[in-house]
Inverse folding.
């Protein structure tokens, strides 16, 4: 039924476009729509290549945006200098594919491999600091700087020091064939939430890392034997992803589309979001929530198959939706923030495409014209003429930036855009296979990893403006 309604809605939109105005208006609208898809501000691309196998991880240095680490399926780990777009160090030693990677204080890199080893490297010098054995394959590595520990999850849950010494390991209470797929640190309580493909989620208390204790979510602190959830606090199916929404709330989703919000203070059920369940049940078992992102304390973004939804967790309503974000499954999503405010959503799918979506209208209550102007000012900051001159007709002006050319067709397209749909304003294609990771690096730059290369996508308009402003200052001096 949902797909039928979508098809009918699409047909009606086409009919409105065909019969809703004269030919000139329709052509202007279509020109604006085509122009909108080419308004990708990330026009400057740097390609960094060293790998001979497919890259699976891309991790920025801890508290250092000038370096990033990539790791591939052959076991090779490379440290890159982002500012120079050059290779900095090559970390060799693993004999099989890298299965997890993170960075910690002091420029150190932690990697885990299918060769059942966990290694601590000095990313600045490229030297190996420590190598530890792990009985199985590590799927998750999470760093907790306040405790100076690294949490590793695979078949077991283990804790290591920053020097690679194992402080403790806890095996699952019952035999299982599934590995840990989510580790969520609760820094305020010095705990972590651990989930695998089972209907239970566990909390590990790590204030004293040498004395690990395990409590089942929904039970008291005195129950130490991994008691399973019961009643309504238990997922109806296996857990597929977990995400911290705020310090006091964590969200978990299972394969039937149900999303549960838990209190991190008492590990009790706070709220159940069931608005997506009919959509997932109707689409069959092939679609399930594979990623949850926290947009702000009130909204989350859920990716499932080729679709994503923006859900208000207070009203239980779908704020925005996109039923065909990519051709095939969405592999990764990242919220691009500027001054801590969510501005854009970046998605990558198995179709090897990267798409940019505007999030601005989800928070602003301004009229439609003001939203269009604000969106274009952020998207295209390059002035088309010097500041102080009278702007041309059909353009928007900014006293600090000059004026921006705004074709009427583009403005009409933006103004006519439906509020329940996110605005896709750009598509990037540079890979032949799906993108493994997306990492934001500052307000005007992000990086992607896929195939055998790492790419740095920079906002060319902002860089062009910064260079010109610097040149003007140099001339004035």
């Amino acid at each position: 039924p949902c797909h039928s309604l979508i098809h009918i809605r699409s047909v009606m939109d086409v009919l409105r476009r065909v019969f809703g105005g004269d030919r000139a208006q329709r052509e202007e609208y279509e020109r604006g729509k085509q122009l909108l898809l080419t308004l990708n501000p990330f026009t400057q691309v740097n390609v960094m290549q060293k790998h001979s196998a497919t890259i699976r991880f891309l991790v920025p240095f801890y508290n250092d945006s000038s370096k990033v680490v990539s790791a591939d399926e052959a076991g090779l780990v490379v440290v890159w200098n982002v500012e120079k777009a050059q290779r900095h160090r090559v970390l060799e030693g693993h004999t099989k594919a890298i299965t997890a990677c993170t960075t910690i204080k002091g420029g150190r890199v932690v990697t885990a491999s299918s060769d059942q080893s966990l290694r601590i490297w000095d990313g600045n010098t490229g030297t190996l600091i420590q190598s530890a054995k792990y009985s199985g394959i590590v799927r998750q590595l999470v760093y907790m700087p306040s405790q100076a520990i690294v949490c590793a999850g695979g078949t077991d849950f283990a804790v290591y020091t920053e020097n690679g010494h194992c402080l403790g390991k806890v095996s699952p209470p019952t035999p299982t064939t599934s590995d840990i797929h989510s580790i969520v640190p609760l820094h305020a309580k010095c705990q972590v939430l651990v989930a695998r493909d089972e209907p239970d989620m566990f909390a590990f208390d790590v204030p004293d890392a040498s004395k690990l204790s395990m409590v089942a979510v929904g039970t008291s602190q005195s129950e130490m034997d991994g008691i399973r959830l019961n009643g309504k606090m238990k997922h109806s199916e296996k857990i597929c992803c977990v995400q911290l929404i705020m310090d006091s709330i964590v969200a978990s989703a299972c394969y039937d589309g149900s999303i549960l919000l838990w209190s991190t203070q008492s590990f009790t059920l706070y709220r159940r979001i069931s608005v997506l369940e009919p959509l997932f049940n109707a689409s069959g078992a092939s679609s399930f929530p594979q990623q949850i992102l926290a947009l702000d304390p009130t909204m989350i973004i859920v990716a499932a198959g080729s679709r994503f939804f923006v859900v208000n967790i207070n009203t239980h309503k779908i704020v925005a939706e996109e039923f065909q974000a990519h051709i095939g499954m969405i592999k990764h999503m990242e919220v691009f923030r500027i001054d801590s405010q969510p501005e854009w959503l970046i998605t990558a799918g198995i179709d090897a495409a990267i798409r940019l979506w505007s999030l601005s209208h989800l928070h602003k209550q301004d009229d439609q014209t003001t939203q269009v102007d604000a969106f274009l000012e952020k998207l295209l900051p390059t002035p088309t003429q010097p500041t102080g001159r009278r702007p041309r007709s059909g353009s928007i002006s900014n006293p600090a930036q000059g004026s921006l050319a705004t074709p009427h067709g583009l403005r009409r397209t933006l103004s006519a855009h439906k509020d329940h749909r996110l605005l896709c304003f750009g598509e990037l294609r540079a890979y032949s296979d799906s993108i493994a990771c997306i990492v934001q690096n500052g307000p005007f730059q992000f990086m992607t990893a896929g195939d055998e290369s790492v790419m740095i996508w920079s906002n060319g308009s902002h860089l062009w403006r910064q260079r010109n402003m610097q040149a003007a200052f140099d001339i004035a001096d």
